[in-house]
Amino acid sequence: MPAAPDALxxxxxxxxxxxxxxxxxxxxxxxxxxxxxxxxxxxTGLGYPAAVFDGEGTIVGATFRxxxxxxxxxxxxxxxxxxxxxGLYRRVEVVTGRGVHAWAYAYGTGLTLTPIAxxxxxxx
Length: 124
What we know:
Number of strands: 8
CATH superfamily: Gamma-glutamyl cyclotransferase-like
Strand content: 25-35%
Shape: globular
Structural class: alpha+beta
Number of helices: 2
Helix content: 10-25%
Order of helices and strands: EHEEEEHEEE
CATH architecture: Roll
CATH class: Alpha Beta
Strand order of the largest sheet: 1-5-2
Radius of gyration: 13 Å
Largest sheet: 3 strands, antiparallel
């Protein structure tokens, strides 16, 4: 069985400089790389996006490596934070456009979603 990912693909408020970056930053061990993932990005109308990793489009974001010795802690913190927002986000494994096996947070259910043309939250 392959090892669990030690990277996180982010596409919205967890991106560097956005409002929830502070939850991710303590666990990051690199500068991150611009990256993509297959799927559709949506505006929730609540100040944060939602991603559906369905392979139908391209989601623009970045991939960050997480400290191996703090990986469990990082995922616990991020899982808890993602569960505090409406839409019941869940952590899933994706393969990014750069071929990185990474965790990402996928939309769950219950919100009215508007597709974001171009798949980039930062340029909506």
